[in-house]
Specification:
CATH architecture of the largest domain in chain B: Orthogonal Bundle
Radius of gyration of chain B: 19 Å
Radius of gyration of chain A: 44 Å
Strand content of chain A: 5-15%
Oligomer: heterodimer
Structural class of chain B: mainly alpha
Mean pLDDT of chain A: 68
CATH topology of the largest domain in chain B: Rna Polymerase Sigma Factor, Chain: A
Shape of chain A: elongated
Helix content of chain B: 55-70%
Largest sheet of chain A: 3 strands, antiparallel
Strand content of chain B: under 5%
Distance between the termini of chain B: 34 Å
Number of helices of chain A: 10
Chain lengths: 230, 212
């Protein structure tokens, strides 16, 4: 029997079989190994008993009561390994449902033109190329609104956009302008940069999409002038 | 086993009727299944110390060992209706405790992977969990101090073993279970159990050579 076999099979807690005993009798290193394992086992067996707390049963009884009454059902279903991911998934699912069902913001709460009335149109039509716009009417510019406190003393495109946004100012209450709006769902009042002329433009229905992007519209007007808006 | 005095004021958990002392573990489990809590607490009385010792040496964390020992008994109680007397009760309860201990050790490993505290973890070879510190307020003479130091070293060495070796070694060399029962507890073939225990002893011998 070889030394490695002896080391693999020697058990200090049992009497060694004859073959191992014979090997140990003639092999000093293996005998030393066996002695050390015997000491190790004795050391482990002599480990003192670890006492339990005096209130062990009392604590256990409290926990059992909690289990019975169901107050610890959350923990019985598993620990936080399962509870936290489950809670996170629930939160994400609720958030997704809320976001998907969120209603479109009403036009009154938006700073864009309020005169738009979007008729029900087939969705396919909105993908078509916009038709050419038609100038319904033109007239000399209305008197400029009084200067704002913010320091805008002269009429400007920014002022014009502001007046469009207000709605009442964008659609002057005059019959010669309102008459043309019967055929067109959208009318846009444009004031020239010079402030000398105003034009009322009928937008094709497909341009209704622009209504949802007032920022783009205002940027075009303020940076490029009214000629480049469309 | 010392029975505690019966007192009308003591809660049920502290009281075990002497008549249960004559029953074996299977009979006590049968009574527990029928809802007899006194029978259950007799089982607690019999096994709370060995289970706590086993868990303490597995985890090297006394408080957690107490917590898991109680959890072990809760599981015994709540699953009493599923208990089958085809093995020894001690095998059954050690198996529950082993599963809880291994789950706890794996949970610690996972947390250690993601925890910044790992930067300050003890060097390789150090034990998991907190230092085992069972309170003992007796004054220690010099010889006892040396002995206490040696025991701490043994506990640290045992706790540093890989968990698959650790459970088998503790059950055999500290708790004194037979190989066959260890194989039942760990659900391993007998040869694998013997091999693991042999490997654990060789590792421990290397770690504790200075004390052998």
């Amino acid at each position: 029997m070889r030394c490695e076999q002896v080391k693999q099979q020697y058990d200090p807690t049992c009497d060694p079989p004859q073959s191992i005993a014979e090997h140990l009798a003639r092999c000093a290193p293996c005998r030393q190994y066996a002695t050390e394992l015997q000491r190790l086992t004795a050391l482990l067996r002599s480990e003192p008993e670890i006492p339990v707390p005096a209130d062990f049963n009392r604590q256990l009884q409290r926990r059992l009561e909690a289990v019975r009454t169901g107050s610890s059902a959350w923990w019985r279903f598993g620990d936080l390994r399962y509870a936290l991911p489950l809670a996170a998934m629930l939160v994400m699912a609720v958030a997704a449902v809320i976001i998907m069902n969120r209603p479109e913001p009403s036009s009154s709460s938006r700073p864009g033109p309020s005169l738009v009335r979007a008729p029900a149109q087939p969705e396919r039509e909105s993908l078509e190329v916009p038709k050419k716009m038609e100038v319904v009417a033109a007239r000399p510019a209305m008197p400029s609104p009084p200067p704002r406190e913010s320091g805008h003393s002269s009429p400007s495109l920014r002022e014009g956009r502001a007046s469009l946004a207000l709605g009442e100012e964008a659609v002057p209450q005059e019959p010669w302008l309102l008459g043309g709006s019967e055929n067109s769902p959208i009318l846009l009042l444009i004031r020239e940069p010079s402030g000398r002329e105003e034009r009322l433009v009928r937008l094709p229905s497909v341009v209704v999409g622009a209504e949802a992007k007032p920022a783009t519209l205002s940027l075009s007007m303020s940076e490029k002038g009214t000629e480049n808006v469309f | 086993m010392a029975m505690e005095a019966v007192s009308c004021q003591a809660p049920l958990g502290e009281v075990v009727s002497p008549r249960y002392g004559a029953l074996d573990d299977h009979e006590l489990m049968e009574a527990t299944r029928r809802g007899d809590e006194a029978a259950f607490y007799e089982l607690v009385q019999r096994y709370r110390t060995p289970i706590t010792n086993y868990l303490t040496r597995m985890l090297n964390d006394y408080d957690m060992a107490i917590d898991l020992a109680q959890e072990t008994f809760i599981r015994v109680f709540t699953s009493a209706h599923r208990y089958r007397a085809d093995h020894r009760f001690s095998t059954y309860i050690y198996r529950i405790a082993t599963n809880l201990a291994i789950s706890e050790l794996r949970r610690r490993k996972r947390w250690r992977l993601v925890s910044l505290v790992s930067f300050f973890a003890p060097p390789e070879g150090a034990e998991e969990g907190a230092e085992l510190d069972v309170p003992d307020h007796r004054p220690l003479p010099e010889g006892a101090l040396i002995e206490d130091e040696r025991r701490q070293m043994v506990r640290r060495a045992v706790a540093s073993l890989p968990e698959k070796y650790r459970a088998a070694l503790i059950l055999r060399d500290i708790e004194g279970l037979e190989y066959e029962r260890i194989a039942e507890v760990l659900r391993l073939p007998l040869g694998t159990v013997k091999s693991r225990i042999n490997r654990a002893r060789r590792l421990l011998r290397e770690k504790l050579r200075a004390h052998l």
